[in-house]
Specification:
Elements (H helix, E strand, L loop, with lengths): L13 E4 L2 H11 L9 H6 L11 H9 L3 H8 L6 E10 L8 E14 L4 E11 L5 E12 L1
Antiparallel strand pairs: 1-3, 2-5, 3-4, 4-5
């Protein structure tokens, strides 16, 4: 069983700079056809700083920036081979644009089990801020551990 003492634990802050090409590639991959995602001129004409990441890019960015998971799993005594991504949710506050420097602050908000401990759940909350300190998105993740 994962010790509940880890509820409230804050992971090290991770950072990444958002680049144009990955936004364009991601937009094309998911079929986001609005020119603001691939054409800087169109994005600027629409009032943005640069090309705009589609909303679901926040998960991609979070995955690219996160380096804490392996250490978190080790500290919690979790075998990464028994981990499943159970749920993901976002609350968006501001668009993410190419050139943004993002910081990800993650904390464990809950740990619980189901089926007599056969499944354990780790819930994390990540606040994503940009270079101005503005919160651009909040992410809630549920990780499932199969025992």
């Amino acid at each position: 069983m994962i010790d509940h003492k880890f509820i409230g634990r804050t992971e090290p802050v991770t950072r990444m700079e958002v680049e144009k090409y990955p936004i364009r590639f991601f937009a094309m991959a998911i079929g986001a056809t609005d020119p603001i995602h691939v054409d800087e001129e169109a994005a600027r004409a629409a009032g943005y700083r640069s090309v705009v990441a589609p909303p679901t890019y926040a998960l991609c960015a979070q995955s690219l920036a996160e380096q804490y998971e392996s250490q978190m799993f080790a500290d919690l005594g979790v075998d990464p081979g028994r981990v499943l991504h159970g749920e993901q949710g976002f609350t968006y506050h501001e668009p993410i644009c190419a050139g943004d420097k993002l910081e990800f602050r993650t904390r464990i908000t809950d740990i619980y089990d189901k089926k007599g401990g056969a499944l354990e759940f780790i819930v994390t909350q990540t606040d994503i801020t940009n270079q101005t300190g503005a919160v651009v998105a909040e992410s809630r993740t549920v990780i499932v551990v199969r025992n």
